[in-house]
Specification:
Blueprint (H helix, E strand, L loop, with lengths): L1 H17 L4 H13 L3 H14 L4 H14 L2 H14 L4 H13 L3 H14 L4 H13 L3 H14 L4 H13 L3 H5 L2
Helix pairs in contact: 2-3, 2-4, 3-4, 4-5, 4-6, 5-6, 6-7, 6-8, 7-8, 8-9, 8-10, 9-10
C-alpha cells in the first residue's frame, strides 16, 4: 500500500498535466522527443495523441516512422497504414511505408507503393529516388536510369541521384554519360 501512495502524486501530476491538452500538443511533444532521440518519450506522447484522437493521421504516421526507425516493422506498418487510411495525401507516410517494404524484402509491394505515390504526386522526388534504388539493386539499370532521370528533372544537381545515376551508367558501360553528370 505504501508503494501505491508514493506513486499517487506522480500519477496525479501526470493526469492533471494531460487533462484537456489537445492531441496536437502531444503530437508536437512526440516530434520533439523523436528529434532529441528520446524514443521512450516519443512513444509516450504519440500514444497520448492517438488516445486523445484515434483519427489523428499525422500522429499515426509519426508513430509509424518512429517504429520504422527502431526496427519494429510490424508496428510501423500498422501505424503507417492507419495514417494513410485516415489521410491518403500524407506522402511521407507512403514514402516510409515503401521504405519499410523495401527493408523487409517485400520488393514488389515497395515498387507498387512508390509507383502509386508517383501517380498521385509526380513531383515527389524521394519516390523517384526510392524506385530507382530498387531497380538499381535488382540490376534493372534502364528502369533505374529512368527513375533517377525523373528525380534529376525535379531537383537538378541532387548528389544522391547523380551518384546513383553515374553508377548505373557505369554498370551498362556508358561511362561517358556518367562523366557528363
Amino acid at each position: 500500500m505504501k508503494r501505491l501512495t508514493s506513486l499517487f502524486p506522480v500519477l496525479l501530476f501526470t493526469a492533471l498535466n494531460c487533462w484537456g491538452q489537445p492531441p496536437e500538443e502531444f503530437y508536437q511533444q512526440g516530434i520533439q522527443a523523436m528529434q532529441e532521440g528520446n524514443t521512450a518519450s516519443a512513444i509516450h506522447y504519440f500514444n497520448l495523441a492517438i488516445e486523445a484522437d484515434k483519427n489523428f493521421a499525422q500522429a499515426h504516421g509519426a508513430f509509424g516512422t518512429l517504429f520504422l526507425e527502431t526496427g519494429d516493422f510490424t508496428k510501423a506498418e500498422v501505424h503507417l497504414k492507419q495514417s494513410l487510411t485516415l489521410d491518403p495525401s500524407l506522402s511521407i507516410a507512403s514514402l516510409n511505408l515503401a521504405h519499410l517494404y523495401r527493408k523487409s524484402g517485400r520488393i514488389d509491394t515497395a515498387i507498387e507503393t512508390y509507383q502509386a505515390l508517383i501517380q498521385a504526386n509526380p513531383n515527389q522526388v524521394q519516390a523517384h529516388l526510392g524506385l530507382g534504388t530498387i531497380y538499381q539493386s535488382n540490376e534493372d539499370y534502364d528502369q533505374a536510369i529512368e527513375s533517377y532521370q525523373h528525380a534529376l528533372d525535379l531537383v537538378p544537381q541532387m548528389p544522391a541521384v547523380m551518384t546513383n545515376l553515374a553508377s548505373c551508367y557505369e554498370a551498362i558501360e556508358q561511362g561517358d554519360l556518367a562523366i557528363s553528370l
